[in-house]
Specification:
single chain; 434 residues; alpha/beta; Rossmann fold; pyruvate-formate lyase- activating enzyme; 6-stranded parallel beta sheet; 14 strands; binds iron/sulfur cluster
Length: 434
């Protein structure tokens, strides 16, 4: 049996605007492609008598008339959903069966079921073998629901990262250490997707996986490396101590409210473990959103704290939240400069399915009728409180153009090298992406 995994294309910032694309071309920003974990994880759980292949629409074109497979498995998150449904229609029209999995089908299984022969809601590992067996016996069920299954049971296998072609991706290994999150931030899909407790993978497995990575750098997809509870700190300290010996570069993302609560010894261990950059998301959580009401304390403190441990910061500013006004576009450039962070990115607040912020906006009748493809952080998907939709869309685009339009190539190169390290930079494969 042959399974074709498909990763549908989603529109990134650079795909939607020629001026932006030209301005950002030198910065390797706005079109950043990391080899994700979803498909390699399911591939790892596939029975050995199946042949597998991956078509990633970001680097390959999908030929609908090439029907050399038995089952199509499409994994997607929200901005890919519109395209995933289009692909499924074409494939099913040609007589092949389609199964969906991933973040969006888990959050909206009944919507996804309208477009596929079977949907996996939740982790694929516990039901993937059943799906394949049912397919072979022509008895696929419309829904395989594993949302209450225990993560990291014996079904977990090391992801098959070799599925991603080398060209077209930044050469960083993505590693996941846990599932779920205790914080329940209103804008976040992690708790509705993976539960509101944290289940850690066995430490030795994680260390072995990082040691075996082909890449000199890796990104930890979880934020709990710096959570402040005793259990989280204990896991993080043990992990960071062990991976420090591997001499790899480590990247993480975080929020000011987490950094400001993080213990100094964890920050120190992070730096010693080779942390090359912290991607600091601001303006989204309630503490850092206060910067739009004139209180920048949370962001100031977080940036200062990260830098005090010698770790570069790349700041990502959320715009369009309920405190955001038109005047904040110009203010953000000055504020970002005053922080002296190495690079900045900007995104528009987006209410993803399953989140409580989406439920609130729906109750206030503020959600706009736009396709899922617009849920990429670069489009207006709901009516903002203190700025018009037009002003937000226009101001967002100009913010990127202004911030990057004024840096010389040399300055850009210096900043990127600081933020990513030469080894990652060297392996960016922009030309191959077309
Ligand atoms: S944003 Fe981070 S801290 Fe908040 S719920 Fe999501 S994963 Fe947890």
């Amino acid at each position: 049996m042959k399974i074709r995994f498909i990763f549908p294309k989603w529109q990134k910032l650079l795909d939607q605007d020629e001026d932006l694309s030209r301005t950002l071309a030198g910065y390797e920003i706005g079109n950043f492609r990391m080899p994700g974990l979803a498909v390699p994880s399911v591939a790892a759980a596939t029975p050995h008598d199946c042949q597998i292949e991956l078509v990633d629409e970001h680097t390959q074109s999908l030929d609908f008339d090439n029907l050399d497979f038995d089952l199509a498995a499409i994994s997607f998150f929200t901005p890919q959903a519109s395209r995933a449904y289009e692909i499924a229609i074409q494939i099913r029209k040609r007589g092949k069966k389609v199964v969906f999995g991933g973040l969006h089908p888990t959050l909206l299984p009944f919507e996804a079921m309208k477009h596929a022969d079977a949907v996996c809601a939740g982790m694929a590992e516990p039901c993937w073998t059943d799906i394949i067996t049912d397919f072979k016996h022509n008895r696929l069920k419309p829904l395989y629901d594993t949302r209450s299954a225990v993560p990291y049971s014996s079904q977990y296998h090391t992801p098959v990262r070799s599925l991603w072609q080398k060209k077209g991706y930044v050469q960083i290994g993505v590693v996941q250490i846990s599932r779920g999150c205790t914080y329940r931030c209103p804008y976040c899909v992690v708790p509705p997707y993976a539960g509101d407790d944290i289940v850690y993978r066995p430490l030795d497995d994680v260390v072995a996986e990082i040691a075996a990575l082909d890449y000199p750098s890796f990104y930890v997809a979880d934020e709990n490396l710096i959570f402040s509870s005793a259990r989280d700190s204990q896991y993080a300290s043990a992990l960071l101590r062990q991976i420090a010996h591997l001499k790899k570069r480590l990247f993480i993302a975080s929020f000011p409210f987490l950094i400001n609560r993080a213990a100094d010894n964890i920050m120190e261990l992070l730096a010693n473990a080779g942390c090359t950059q912290i991607y600091l998301v601001t303006g989204l959580d309630s503490e850092s959103e206060k910067m739009y009401a004139g209180d920048t304390t949370a962001v100031d403190q977080a940036v200062k704290k990260i830098r005090s441990f010698g770790i570069p910061v790349m700041t990502s500013f959320c715009v369009g939240s309920d405190l955001f006004e038109e005047k904040h576009f110009s203010w953000l450039i000055d504020y970002s400069d005053s922080l002296e962070t190495d690079l900045a990115e900007f995104f528009i607040s987006t209410p993803y399915p399953g989140t409580s912020v989406r439920a609130r906006l729906a109750g206030e009748r503020r959600l706009l009728d736009v396709p899922w493809s617009k849920y990429n952080g670069a489009n207006v998907t709901y009516r903002p409180a203190r700025i018009s939709e037009r002003e937000l869309a226009h101001g967002f685009r100009n913010l990127w153009l202004k911030y990057y339009g004024r840096l010389s190539r040399f300055e850009a190169y210096k900043r990127i090298t600081r933020c990513f390290g030469a080894s990652v930079l060297k392996t960016f494969e922009r030309k191959a992406t077309g």
